């Protein structure tokens, strides 16, 4: 991609706006601002990974595109492993590209809870439509494989609603490497959609550039201070002055950056995520999940509070999941062809936090599950087990250390009305949000209804941090919709400021 470059010496740059982060939020802001003719500089901590150089080896792919190689955890009991992209395109390069809108009733609840202006399903619909058009949200045609059929079969046998999932794709070849960076450019991530368009309009993109601080003086963000690397890996200072600053570094690193820039009030206090528990299902007939697309149906009967779906399945990823309890489950590697990996996901009532720690590159992330979250996890795991047996599984292994696995549908009710063992349960998530919720409820919201950080005239948040609570669905479309909305509002606000300034000059 043109414009993704390494500086050779210290840079002093100026632009109409600087965007920190190149994922779904940052790319969407760039699309709006470059279309309006503004000069833009985008700073991305990770590297650019073209499809042609995407590695098929899990260790190399995770190291290149995932923060911390995919191993990061929110502290709690138990700790919850979470995943973030760190590359040009951010999380859109490693996610499954599933496109879903937040439930309209939830959007209405958020509007009332946080007093968010002009925030209804109808008012957000044009932004959702724009996001869906960008990524060509569409159903996958042709054979989807047994891994998808298992969810459909199990859900329908139980009389539950099962939904086909649209994805952001063009000509998917079913390589089953969505989490590695798509090798064909078929997944419509930001690096193959909005970012090239913005660069062609003149945006300057600096990859491998970490932002240390935003300087704020007299209620304005005046300068972004960063460190890049030259072609030899040496650190190069980068200073950017811009009329507007958009922080789009994700629900973890956006609040961390704002806090180390001196903005701490209510920022990073309300982290939400989707606690997710997995299960491995063993069948008598081959599933061959490693040779087909990831499961493209989901059991949606219990949404938005609970959802049951399928995970990316490759030999290496399957081995990593078994490593949670290798002593008892390592033998399942020999039955790879007969296994599938599925999950249950909940909308939690618990809340987490993000804190910047001086001297550390990574912030401190905590998350505490509420008592009702444990019951919800028990229920969704029970339902997941029911679906697997209804689809013909002969054994189901929940992601609980030391658990022997269930061999009949009668056994899956083991935890229905009691919490899972918190010392042995392995939880993870790939969805993070809500650390900077918007609204006019000033005691709860660190940014206004349009993403502007309180007390700073030209500093905006535009990423998953803005989603007011856990949405119960894959968040990319909501992130893009809200980022489009923030960017348009910022343009309007900037135009008003220029008009007022011009009027004052005439007096």
From TrEMBL:
Residues 67-275 form the Glucose-methanol-choline oxidoreductase N-terminal domain. Residues 365-483 form the Glucose-methanol-choline oxidoreductase C-terminal domain. InterPro entries: FAD/NAD-bd_sf (IPR036188), GMC_OxRdtase (IPR012132), GMC_OxRdtase_N (IPR000172), GMC_OxRtase_C (IPR007867). SUPFAM superfamilies: FAD/NAD(P)-binding domain (SSF51905). Keywords: FAD, Flavoprotein, Oxidoreductase. Its cofactor is FAD. One of its GO terms (molecular function) is oxidoreductase activity, acting on CH-OH group of donors. Gene3D superfamilies: FAD/NAD(P)-binding domain (3.50.50.60). This is GMC family oxidoreductase.
């Amino acid at each position: 991609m043109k414009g993704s470059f390494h500086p050779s010496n210290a840079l002093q740059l100026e632009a109409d706006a600087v965007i920190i982060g190149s994922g779904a939020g940052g790319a969407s802001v760039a699309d709006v601002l470059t279309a309006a003719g503004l000069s833009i500089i985008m700073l991305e901590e990770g590297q650019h990974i073209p499809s042609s150089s995407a590695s098929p080896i899990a260790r190399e792919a995770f190291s290149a595109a995932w923060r911390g190689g995919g191993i990061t955890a929110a502290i709690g009991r138990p700790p919850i492993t979470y995943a973030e992209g760190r590359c040009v395109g951010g999380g859109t390069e490693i996610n499954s590209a599933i496109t879903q809108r937040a439930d309209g009733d939830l959007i209405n609840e958020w509007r009332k809870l946080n007093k968010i202006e002009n925030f209804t399903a109808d008012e957000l619909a044009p932004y959702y439509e724009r996001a869906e058009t960008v990524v060509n949200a569409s159903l996958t045609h042709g054979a989807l494989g047994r891994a998808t059929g298992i969810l459909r079969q199990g859900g329908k046998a139980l009389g539950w609603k099962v939904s086909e999932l649209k994805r952001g794709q063009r000509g998917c070849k079913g390589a089953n490497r969505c989490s590695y960076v798509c090798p064909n450019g078929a997944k419509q991530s930001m690096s193959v959609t909005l970012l090239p368009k913005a660069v062609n309009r003149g945006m300057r993109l600096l990859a491998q550039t970490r932002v240390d601080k935003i300087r704020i003086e007299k209620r304005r963000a005046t300068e972004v201070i960063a460190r890049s690397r030259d072609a030899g890996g040496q650190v190069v200072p980068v200073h950017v002055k811009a009329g507007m600053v958009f922080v789009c570094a994700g629900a973890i690193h956006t609040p961390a950056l704002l806090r180390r820039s001196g903005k701490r009030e209510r920022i990073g206090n309300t982290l939400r995520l989707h606690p997710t528990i997995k299960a491995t299902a063993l069948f008598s007939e081959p599933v061959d999940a490693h040779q087909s697309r990831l499961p493209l149906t989901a059991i949606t009967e219990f949404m938005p509070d609970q959802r049951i779906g399928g995970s990316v399945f490759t030999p290496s990823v399957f081995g990593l999941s078994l490593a949670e309890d290798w002593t008892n489950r390592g033998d399942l590697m020999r039955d790879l062809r007969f296994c599938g990996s599925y999950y249950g996901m909940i909308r939690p009532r618990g809340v987490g936090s993000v804190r910047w720690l001086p001297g550390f590159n990574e912030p401190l992330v905590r998350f505490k599950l509420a008592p009702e979250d444990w019951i919800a996890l028990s229920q969704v795991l029970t339902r997941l087990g029911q679906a697997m047996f209804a689809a013909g599984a002969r054994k189901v292994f929940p992601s609980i250390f030391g658990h022997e696995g269930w061999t009949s549908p009668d056994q899956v009710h083991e935890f229905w009305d009691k919490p899972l063992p918190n010392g042995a349960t392995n939880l993870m998530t790939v969805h993070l949000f809500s650390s900077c919720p918007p609204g006019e409820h000033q005691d709860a919201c660190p940014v206004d209804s349009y993403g502007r950080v309180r007390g700073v005239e030209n500093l905006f948040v535009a990423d998953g941090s803005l989603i007011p609570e856990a949405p119960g669905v894959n968040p990319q479309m909501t992130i893009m919709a809200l980022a489009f909305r923030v960017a348009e509002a910022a343009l309007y606000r900037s135009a008003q400021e220029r008009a007022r300034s011009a009027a004052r000059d005439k007096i």
